[in-house]
């Protein structure tokens, strides 16, 4: 039996903050670089990334080859999207624009198999998929393992979502809420200014409400410079975030090009 490890869940059990890399570019080698840099997981951004499903599978392979846990942000949370990435070997999903409890319930049902222990699952069952080792794993054992080890993260990033946050948090089997700071700032009429005092106040309130419900919070460290990222990291962890995603491939590469160009100009 070959089962993979969800390094995010393992880190949390050891009270350690897992750190992920954010990848949007059509390049499995970037995923490998993150794995070689000893990140815990990779956020494969199928929503805003410049690639299709074939590349998602290649990125999952690259993650597995370098010890990363692959977690995929799907474009809109439809059950078919969720099934495809999990069947391909993703060990978690990130669903954008979740603004009500019914959407949250549909996402959870789409990500879970129906088993004797869990009858609310609606994920399509197929023993032939890549995630089962191409039909080499025992199906009942795999289905139970998948239900226990698949990470479900919801992006709450609208004013409506904030209003309905307590109802969303009451949905069973949601592992974490992701702080969608930029979209939230747009939704609040702040033109994407995630450091606006009103936006920061709402985000801090979200963290408190989510942790009070015993659900984890994912903080995004997308500052333009390392000192800003360090400051955000300290703030988020101090506020209760137990999962971080640090840096995006586009930002890291652009910053490096700019820094080198400045040195040699």
TrEMBL record:
Keyword tags: Lyase, Metal-binding
Keyword Isomerase: no
A cellular component term, taken from the record's GO annotations: cytoplasm
Domain HpcH/HpaI aldolase/citrate lyase: 20-223
GO molecular function: aldehyde-lyase activity; metal ion binding
Family of this protein: Belongs to the HpcH/HpaI aldolase family.
PANTHER family registered for this protein in UniProt: 2-KETO-3-DEOXY-L-RHAMNONATE ALDOLASE (PTHR30502), PHOSPHOENOLPYRUVATE CARBOXYLASE FAMILY PROTEIN (PTHR30502:SF0)
Protein name, entry field: Aldolase
Source species: Verticiella sediminum
């Amino acid at each position: 039996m070959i089962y993979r490890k969800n390094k995010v869940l393992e880190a949390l059990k050891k009270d350690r903050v897992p750190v992920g890399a954010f990848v949007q570019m059509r390049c499995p080698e970037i995923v490998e670089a993150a794995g070689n840099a000893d990140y815990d997981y990779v956020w494969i951004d199928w929503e805003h990334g410049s690639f299709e499903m074939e590349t998602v599978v290649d990125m999952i392979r690259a993650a597995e080859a370098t010890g990363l846990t692959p977690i995929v942000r799907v474009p809109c949370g439809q059950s078919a999207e969720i099934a495809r990435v999990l069947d391909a070997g993703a060990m978690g999903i990130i669903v954008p624009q979740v603004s009500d409890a019914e959407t949250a319930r549909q996402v959870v049902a789409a990500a879970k198999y129906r088993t004797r222990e869990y009858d609310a699952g609606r994920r399509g069952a197929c023993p032939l998929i890549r995630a089962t080792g191409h039909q080499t794993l025992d199906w009942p054992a795999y289905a139970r393992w998948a239900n226990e080890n698949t990470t479900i993260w919801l992006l709450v990033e609208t004013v409506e979502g904030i209003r309905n946050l307590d109802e969303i948090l009451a949905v069973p089997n949601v592992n974490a809420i992701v702080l969608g700071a930029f979209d939230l700032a747009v939704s609040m009429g702040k033109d994407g200014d995630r450091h606006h005092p009103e936006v920061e106040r709402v985000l801090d309130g979200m963290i408190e409400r989510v942790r009070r419900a015993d659900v984890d919070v994912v903080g995004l460290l997308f500052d333009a410079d390392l000192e800003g990222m360090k400051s955000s990291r300290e703030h988020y962890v101090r506020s209760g975030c137990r999962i971080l995603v640090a840096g995006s491939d586009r930002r890291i590469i652009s910053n490096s090009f700019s820094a080198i160009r400045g040195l040699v100009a």
